[in-house]
């Protein structure tokens, strides 16, 4: 049939156009990255390796231009990438030495009190309130230190151990904080005994007090709301927004519609390793474990795309309606044209 | 005063006052369409269906939309998308219909080019069609601003800035269009006015003119055959229906179109429910932020080929700056297709495959426009197979202009001389 051939030609060119301006262009606009890895040690070392490769290529390209300024800055980038890799190597080697299976929750409770955690953090489920309210503490520290009641359930245990020892390295904020501009939370220097055992005990304690079931919204409250609004669900930054903006360098965006503006893949990769998707960002890697990350993204979907189920169901119904209409229209056309054509 | 008699029926009552029968015959029952057509002839009716969808869904959206820089984003993304019952449906339909309208306009236009339906008495149909394309572009652009997302804001910034290229009055013109030094609340409000008031009125008027201009030269057919519509019409009316080369608009032509429209709607609602990101760019779900330039700014897909021509010129020639040359080329591209009836120097009306030169020209033009669209979206600093995107864009742009102003006249002059 001649019309079918014409139709196929039309569809062919539309398909080329579509593939070109959608999937193909997107691979160029958003270059591929390794998928999110919840073994943060492996994730950080893999990113550091990727960055070395990238900066090496930049350096090679710079060499070809012969421009001294470009070569110089490319060299600095390359050296930074190499030293960053060394830092992460030795940091995670230290953390991997900690045997988290041997943590003792009872001892951990004691160490937790001795280490001074509750000088800033609340653990409301255990009857421990924070010394300051959210406003005052965000004005003091930049952001309000989180309540740790649920920390053992939502954060990865190795990440928690890493965070306790060196919060700047664990959250990948080395580009923002150093000795001159210290991060508000100091690393844990030990309570006198074997520091690795003590860290392991604290993690065990946090896990022992954590509830078994945590909702996506609760995860959002603990992990995101200290900086971000999600105003379509009436949650606003926990603390003084101006202090947060000053601390972060800019106002962290409202996340109500983030599920429509970023793909789920992007959100996973970004939350998993912020520096991979947005090098230099002030947002810390928060260390959510895989299950929690999935829950918090599902929560953001219920806020930003609340009609998804209705949309998919309704669209199917309307499509079925038009299939039926097309059958009748086709029959009618046949009837009319049987009189017109020989 | 007409001689009004006591009416025999309700239909007769109206007929005596409004000449309903005569009107119906002129508009439908005796408006002759060639029999020898394909589904490509249904694009006009599909476009009309899409325009009705745009109009009705637009009315629904206007009821809740707030044209205010502080409220616009939330009125769209919260009130309409989440609070109003089926508000998301109207918005998705509106967004998809806007985008798909351009797809169908392009198919409609390329059908016209392929069958060379733009000349020998059909010039006004063609010119009014291209005019519709241009006004629809303005309508789409002004509508894209209304959700006040990042792409709305930055596209408005880039496009209004283009008018700065106009000699002498450029800067003043930009300010006049924006209503402010930068894109801001007054810009949003005036584009709202354009989108929901002035441009729709103009569009409806030009659509009416487009139909009217079609009434006398009649629609072309698959073979470009010149049909005596009066003669064939009489044949039809005298009962030689199967012999006649024409069919009436109603029911013959519309019976076909209803079928095509129904099938098209299945595809349309698949896009509404499941594949809408091409028409509603994810970046626009981020609220407008004048302090944060998005990493990539690009127009909607249907503007990409013109956008690539705009940025295809990267070197200055004498006093002309690269951006000025781009702007001139861009403006030319916008109206270029409207010149086809005069750049085609032959009076042959026949499908492209009847003339090898024209046939090749047609497919090269189509492929060039598709490639321009694809490169229009790619980052300008990238490269494909080792060739810088900027150079590829330049070559494609020159090719487009060459095809229109050099190759088309050349091929058609050869055709005329060869006969």
From TrEMBL, chain A:
<feature type="transmembrane region" description="Helical">
    <location>
        <begin position="315"/>
        <end position="332"/>
    </location>
</feature>
<feature type="domain" description="Cytochrome c">
    <location>
        <begin position="103"/>
        <end position="210"/>
    </location>
</feature>
<keyword id="KW-1133">Transmembrane helix</keyword>
<protein>
    <submittedName>
        <fullName>Cytochrome C</fullName>
    </submittedName>
</protein>
<dbReference type="GO" id="GO:0046872">
    <property type="term" value="F:metal ion binding"/>
</dbReference>
<keyword id="KW-0408">Iron</keyword>
<keyword id="KW-0349">Heme</keyword>
<dbReference type="GO" id="GO:0020037">
    <property type="term" value="F:heme binding"/>
</dbReference>
<keyword id="KW-0472">Membrane</keyword>
<dbReference type="Pfam" id="PF00034">
    <property type="entry name" value="Cytochrom_C"/>
</dbReference>
<dbReference type="InterPro" id="IPR036909">
    <property type="entry name" value="Cyt_c-like_dom_sf"/>
</dbReference>
<feature type="domain" description="Cytochrome c">
    <location>
        <begin position="211"/>
        <end position="304"/>
    </location>
</feature>
<keyword id="KW-0812">Transmembrane</keyword>
<dbReference type="GO" id="GO:0009055">
    <property type="term" value="F:electron transfer activity"/>
</dbReference>
<dbReference type="InterPro" id="IPR009056">
    <property type="entry name" value="Cyt_c-like_dom"/>
</dbReference>
<feature type="transmembrane region" description="Helical">
    <location>
        <begin position="7"/>
        <end position="25"/>
    </location>
</feature>
<keyword id="KW-0479">Metal-binding</keyword>
<dbReference type="InterPro" id="IPR021195">
    <property type="entry name" value="Ubol_Cyt_c_Rdtase_Cyt_c_su_prd"/>
</dbReference>
UniProtKB/TrEMBL annotation, chain B:
<dbReference type="GO" id="GO:0022904">
    <property type="term" value="P:respiratory electron transport chain"/>
</dbReference>
<feature type="domain" description="Cytochrome b/b6 N-terminal region profile">
    <location>
        <begin position="10"/>
        <end position="223"/>
    </location>
</feature>
<keyword id="KW-0249">Electron transport</keyword>
<dbReference type="GO" id="GO:0016020">
    <property type="term" value="C:membrane"/>
</dbReference>
<feature type="transmembrane region" description="Helical">
    <location>
        <begin position="124"/>
        <end position="145"/>
    </location>
</feature>
<dbReference type="Pfam" id="PF00032">
    <property type="entry name" value="Cytochrom_B_C"/>
</dbReference>
<dbReference type="InterPro" id="IPR048259">
    <property type="entry name" value="Cytochrome_b_N_euk/bac"/>
</dbReference>
<keyword id="KW-0349">Heme</keyword>
<feature type="transmembrane region" description="Helical">
    <location>
        <begin position="39"/>
        <end position="65"/>
    </location>
</feature>
<keyword id="KW-0812">Transmembrane</keyword>
<keyword id="KW-0813">Transport</keyword>
<dbReference type="InterPro" id="IPR016174">
    <property type="entry name" value="Di-haem_cyt_TM"/>
</dbReference>
<dbReference type="InterPro" id="IPR005798">
    <property type="entry name" value="Cyt_b/b6_C"/>
</dbReference>
<feature type="domain" description="Cytochrome b/b6 C-terminal region profile">
    <location>
        <begin position="239"/>
        <end position="419"/>
    </location>
</feature>
<dbReference type="InterPro" id="IPR027387">
    <property type="entry name" value="Cytb/b6-like_sf"/>
</dbReference>
<keyword id="KW-0408">Iron</keyword>
<dbReference type="InterPro" id="IPR005797">
    <property type="entry name" value="Cyt_b/b6_N"/>
</dbReference>
<dbReference type="GO" id="GO:0009055">
    <property type="term" value="F:electron transfer activity"/>
</dbReference>
<keyword id="KW-0479">Metal-binding</keyword>
<feature type="transmembrane region" description="Helical">
    <location>
        <begin position="191"/>
        <end position="212"/>
    </location>
</feature>
<feature type="transmembrane region" description="Helical">
    <location>
        <begin position="96"/>
        <end position="115"/>
    </location>
</feature>
<keyword id="KW-0679">Respiratory chain</keyword>
